């Protein structure tokens, strides 16, 4: 039997994605064995991110100011928007160093069965950005799985009438996968080989 505080930490950790009860238990015991200062520093980092970080007003990437450093960077090509599902996807694409446009983070992917309808994502915000003009291409880089494909099809339909070129990243990416786990070379190639929708 676990004591109250241990049980509490295990329950809290299971809220995180990919953390089942077994892993939560293992992490809890690991944290218990850590020097106090290290454990406190993990706790503080969590508090800090909630206090200081928010979503960029324009692209919904994570930022500590109103606009993220990519949106405010004058050297970025403001006529291209790459649409991704999660802020973590921005980091992987940035790591390829082969993309110099702006981003738009949807904060999820369409999944009607789970109640994730277009209104729940930052899709209207994307349409408004394109509608404002000055965008020559929208690259859809949602994940190559069912939800990501559904989202890509929906976006293509919604953006087509606005007359902007719409492309989808190519597959050297494993189908059914997540761009998060693609290596930089593969991801860079899939951006280069994007096809128009
Ligand atoms: Zn931004």
Describe this structure in words.
44% of the residues lie in helices and 14% in strands. The protein is an alpha/beta fold. The strands form two sheets. Strands 4-3-5-6-7 form a five-stranded mixed beta sheet. A two-stranded antiparallel ribbon has the order 1-2. The protein contains eight helices and seven strands. The protein folds into two domains: 4-52, RecR Domain 1 (Helicase, Ruva Protein, domain 3), CATH 1.10.8; 55-196, Dna Topoisomerase Vi A Subunit, Chain: A, domain 2 (3-Layer(aba) Sandwich), CATH 3.40.1360.10. α7 (146-159) links the parallel β5 (137-140) and β6. α1 (4-13) crosses α2 (21-33) and α5 crosses α8 (184-192). It has helices spanning 4-13, 21-33, 36-52, 69-72, 87-96, 123-131, 146-159, 184-192, and strands spanning 54-55, 62-63, 77-84, 101-105, 137-140, 165-168, 195-196. The model has no long low-confidence stretch (mean pLDDT 91). It is elongated. The structure holds zinc ion. Residues 56, 58-59, 61, 67-68, 70-71 line the site of zinc ion (ZN).
Which labels suit this protein?
44% helix, Dna Topoisomerase Vi A Subunit, Chain: A, domain 2, Helicase, Ruva Protein, domain 3, 197 residues, 7 strands, alpha/beta, 8 helices
Write the layout of secondary structure elements.
Blueprint: H1 4-13, H2 21-33, H3 36-52, E1 54-55, E2 62-63, H4 69-72, E3 77-84, H5 87-96, E4 101-105, H6 123-131, E5 137-140, H7 146-159, E6 165-168, H8 184-192, E7 195-196
Parallel strand pairs: 3-4, 3-5, 5-6
Antiparallel strand pairs: 1-2, 6-7
This protein binds zinc ion.
Zinc ion (ZN) is lined by residues 56, 58-59, 61, 67-68, 70-71.
């Amino acid at each position: 039997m676990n004591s109250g505080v241990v049980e509490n930490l295990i329950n809290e950790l299971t809220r995180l994605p990919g953390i089942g009860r077994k892993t939560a238990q293992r992490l809890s015991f690991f944290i218990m064995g850590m020097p106090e200062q290290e454990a406190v520093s993990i706790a503080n980092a969590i508090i800090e991110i909630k206090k200081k970080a928010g979503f960029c007003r324009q692209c919904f990437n994570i930022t500590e100011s109103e606009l993220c450093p990519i949106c405010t960077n004058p050297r970025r090509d403001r006529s291209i928007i790459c649409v991704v599902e999660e802020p973590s996807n921005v980091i992987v694409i940035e790591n390829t160093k082969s993309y110099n446009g702006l981003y738009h983070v949807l904060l999820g992917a369409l999944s009607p069965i789970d109640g994730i309808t277009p209104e729940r994502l930052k899709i209207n915000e994307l349409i408004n950005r394109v509608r404002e003009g000055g965008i020559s291409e929208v690259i859809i880089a949602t994940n190559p799985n069912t939800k990501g494909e559904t989202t890509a099809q929906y976006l293509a339909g919604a953006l087509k009438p606005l007359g902007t070129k719409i492309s989808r990243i190519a597959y050297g990416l494993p189908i059914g996968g997540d761009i998060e786990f693609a290596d930089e070379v593969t991801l860079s190639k899939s951006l280069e080989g994007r096809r128009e929708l």
